[in-house]
Design a protein that fits this description.
Elements lengths: L1 E7 L19 H17 L5 E5 L2 H14 L7 E3 L7 H9 L7 E6 L3 H10 L11 E6 L12 E7 L7
Parallel strand pairs: 1-4, 2-3, 2-4
Antiparallel strand pairs: 1-5, 5-6
Length: about 160
């Protein structure tokens, strides 16, 4: 059994036009949501065997809040430049190369690619994930290389507005 927690980054700050898109930080609402959602998911799921995040600051900052909630050192978060604005095809390529020693992996990225990847894994249309939304998926496989379309089962979907954030 392989499990994925796929999380879209929290709300980012657009008030610093001198920063590149890759360097945009979270805004106040994003910090609040990432803190709360990290705690929520830490109460639902055991700590993941691996955390992988887009190298973009907003995604990495979101991953840091989740890691803290799971009591995982931030230094253990693996950054992947290819997750920055990744297409569903890129997501699939990255997931298929995950180490098989990891049963549960938490991954942090961006829309539209992350929502489209969830739909691909479920084999059906899925909502466009709002900021800091998370989807927990299970797949009855032993190797990440075997991930394919319509393979996953949705275990849980959580998003900040559900909790007034």
């Amino acid at each position: 059994m392989k499990e994925l927690l796929l999380v879209r980054h929290a709300k980012s700050d657009w008030d610093k036009p001198h920063l590149s898109d890759h360097e945009r930080p979270l805004n106040k609402r994003g910090h609040r949501a990432a803190t709360a959602m990290g705690v929520l998911w830490a109460g639902i799921l055991r700590p993941p065997d691996l955390i992988v995040s887009s190298s973009a600051r907003r995604a990495l900052d979101t991953a840091h809040y989740f890691a803290r909630a799971w009591r995982i050192p931030e230094a253990d978060i693996r950054q992947d430049d290819h997750l920055y604005l990744a297409t569903p095809h890129s997501w699939l390529h990255i997931v298929r190369k995950l180490p098989d020693s990891a049963g549960l992996v938490a991954m942090f990225g961006h829309n539209e690619g992350i929502s489209e990847f969830v739909a691909f894994l479920l084999g059906r249309t899925f909502v466009s994930m709002p900021t800091c939304a998370g989807v927990w998926l299970q797949m009855a496989i032993d190797a990440w290389a075997d991930v394919s379309e319509d393979l996953a089962t949705l275990q849980r979907y959580e998003f900040p507005k559900k909790y007034g954030l």
